[in-house]
Amino acid sequence: MNKKKNNILYLFVAERNIINDKITYGNVGESIDPEKRKKNQDYNRKKAAGNWITICTWEIGSFSDRNIHNILTKKKNGSGNKFVKDPDNSGNTEEFLFNMSINEAKRLLSECVNECLYEKSSSKSFKMREEQRNCVDKAYRHFSADGKDFLLDCKMRFGKNHVSYQICKSINAKNVLLLSFKTAIKDGWKEDLDHIDFYNYSFNDVEKGYAGEGIYFSSMQGIMADKNLLNKKREWIFDQIEWDIVIFDEEHYGKDSFNSQEILSKIAKSSKTKKLYLSGTPYKSKLSGSFSKDNTFSWSYLDENKKKKSYHKEEENPYKFLPDMEFHTVDICRYLKEKNLIEYNGDEQFNINKMFAVNEEGEFIHNDLVDVWLDITAAGRVSERGKLSPFTFIKDVDSSFIFNHLLWIVNKVNVALAFKNKLKNHSFWKNYKVINAAGNNITSVEETKKLINTNEKTITIVVSRFLEGVTVPEWCSVWFLSDISSPMRYYQAAFRSQSIWKKESTKNGVEWFKKKCYILDFNPTRLLKMMWSQEYFNSNCNNKVCINVINEWLDCAPIFQHDKISSKTIDIDQILNITIKDNFISNFNKTTIFDDSLESLNHKIKESFYNVSYEDYSFKKELKKSITDEVEKGKTLNSEIISLLSDIVEKSGNNFSYERLKQKIKIFLKKIPSYLFVSDNNITDVFEIFQCKEEELFYSETSISLKDFYILCEADVIDIDYLNNCILDFNLKLQEIEKLI
Hints:
Blueprint: E1 7-14, E2 18-19, E3 22-31, H1 34-39, H2 41-44, E4 52-61, H3 65-72, E5 95-101, H4 102-118, H5 130-144, E6 149-154, H6 160-170, E7 175-180, H7 186-192, E8 203-205, E9 214-219, H8 220-225, H9 236-239, E10 245-249, H10 258-267, E11 274-279, H11 283-288, E12 296-299, H12 301-309, E13 324-330, H13 332-338, H14 352-355, H15 367-377, H16 390-393, E14 405-409, H17 413-423, E15 433-436, H18 445-453, E16 458-462, E17 477-480, H19 487-494, E18 502-504, E19 511-513, E20 516-521, H20 526-538, H21 543-556, E21 559-562, E22 567-569, H22 572-580, H23 599-605, E23 608-609, H24 617-632, E24 642-643, H25 658-678, H26 686-692, H27 695-702, H28 706-714, H29 720-740
Parallel strand pairs: 6-11, 6-12, 7-9, 7-10, 8-9, 10-11, 13-20, 13-21, 14-16, 14-17, 15-16, 17-20
Antiparallel strand pairs: 1-3, 1-4, 2-3, 3-5, 18-19, 21-22, 23-24
Helix pairs in contact: 3-4, 5-6, 19-20, 20-21, 20-22, 25-27
C-alpha cells in the first residue's frame, strides 16, 4: 500500500471525450497535487483528445489509485460491461471506458472511494452544516439529561432526515421507529440513509416484521387500520421491541389526536424511549405549549438567508446552492371583472376554486374563462394580457429554463384531469408534457422524475400528493390554482420549489445551479394573509415583533403584485391593510368557509367509508387519508368499508330545501366563536371539538348537533382547513386580549 498521506484521487477527461454531458474515456489517478500533475509534460502526452478537464477530486488519505481501480473493475460502466483498465491497450494505465453521464461517473467513483475508506459502498459522505451540528448537539444534550421529547421546528429543505439519523447515532440508538402520516416520504427516508455515517443502520418496513436492529418505517394510517383488520401486520411494534427512539415525521398532521396519542403511549411505554418530532410548520404544538425553547430547535428561511449572506467568498459558502425565493401575486380578478367575465358576491374576495370548477362531465363550468386565463398566463403575449403572464413579469438571467418544469396545485382530482385535456389543445401550453399526479393517475415520485427527465417541458398537476417530504429539483416555480386556506399546507407546498438543482458544464467543469425559485399565487390577497398568520403566530401574538419579522421576510423573499396596469413591490403597510380589516370573529361568517353549492354533499352521501362514530372523528380523518392513498394507488378497498353518510336533515317530500340548509349552516358558523369562548377546553382545531364531546353545550351555543356537524365535515361541505385557521386566529386574538386585561 502507498504510505503517502493526503493523496487525492482525480477524474480527468479530455474535452473531446465529453459528448452531450456524457463521458466516454476518462483517467482515474492519484496525486498530492492533481492540477500540477495535469500540467506535467509526461502526463500531457496522454491528452490525445484535447485539453484535460478536472471533473472531480476526492481525498483518499494514504490509499492509492490502485486501491480504487481494484474496486472500480468489479463494477459496470454505462454500456453494462465491467470496467477494464487501459481498454484499448494504449499504455495509459489510468484510462477507463465510462460511457455514462458526468453525474453518474462522479457518483460511481464516490461509492468506490467510500467503499475503500469505510468498507461501505455509499456515494454520500458530506458533512453537516453548522446549524445541523447545533441541532444534533442540542438534542443530544436534552436526551442525555433524561429528556423525553424533542421538536425540530425547521424549514423545509433543512435536512431533517439526515439530522434525525445523526441524532439517533449520537445517542447510540439501535432500534428506531419512524412514523408518518405521509406515506409518500418513505422513499426519501430510505434514500437519505445512504450516507457513510449510517453504515450500521438498515432500512426496514414495519409490516414485514422485525429483522434485527435498524430503522423501521410505518405509516400511522397503517397502524390505525390494523385495529379493524384480522391480519395485524404491525402489532409487534407494541410488545416485541423496546424502542430506543420514536421519530414522528410531519407531526403537524395529527400528533395530538386521540388515536395518535394512544398509539404513541403504547409504543413509548418504556421510560428509556425517546421521542423526536419533526415539522416545518408545527403551529399547533407551539400554541399548545407542548414544547419550550429547551427542547426545541428552530431554523427558518430567515435564519438560512442571514447565514447565506454572511459568507463573503462564494466558493466557501455551503448555502450557495439553496435558491432564493420570490413571491408573486397576480390580480387577474380585476381584469376578468372589467371584461365582464366573472361575477361573485360583493362581500367575498376572488374564489379561484369556483373559477376552475368542473361539472359532472369533467368539463370546466366556466370554460371560456379558463381559456382566457390560459391565454393570459402564456408566454409571448404583447397585449395588456401579457402584463399578467409570469413569462413576462419575471426577469431572470435563467429565464430560458426556469419555466420548463412547473408544479400546479389544484383543489380536486377532476380539475387536474380537465386541465390535462384542455392544455393539449392550447397553442402555447400544448408544448408541455402534462403529468397528472392527482387521484389514481401517476402516484410515484420516481415516475414523475423520469417523465421530467425525458421531456424538455412539463407541468405536474397535483391536489395534495408530493407537497411534503418530496424533492423534485427541476421544479423552479409553484403555481397556486386552488384556494388553500391553511398556512401550514401553503408553506409546505411553496417550499417544493426551493430544492437544489445543479448541472455540470461540459467545457470547464463549472457548476450551474438554480439561483432563484418562484411562488405564483393567483389569489391576490391570500399570500399576504398567509404571511401575517404565520408570523403573528410565531411571534407569540406580539404585533411589534411580527411586523419586524415580516419586514425581514420581505427583504430576503420579496412579494411582487401584478395587475394589468403595473407591477409593484408589497410592503408591510399593504399586508397590514389586508389582514387587519378582517375581523377575527367575522371570519367565521364568510361563505367561502363552506361549499354553498352543496354538490359535495350530494356526492359524498353516495360514498363509502369505515363505520366510525363522530366521537372518534380524528381517527376517522386519519383513516380516510389512508383509504384515499390506497384508492389513488389503484388498490381495492377492504370489505369492512360500509356506507356511513346519510342525509343531514330529515327529508319530507317537497318540503326539503337546500336554501334552508344553506341558511342553517351560515347561522351555525356564526355561532362557533360563542362555543369556543364558553367551552372549558382549549380547543385549537376541529378535531378537538369532537374529542371534547360537549354535546349539550355545543348544541345550545350553535343550534346544531355534533352529529350533523360531523356529517358536514365528512362530506367536505365545510372547508376544514379554513375553519381551523379561523379557530387558530380566534385563539391568538383572544390571548392578546387577555394580556391587556
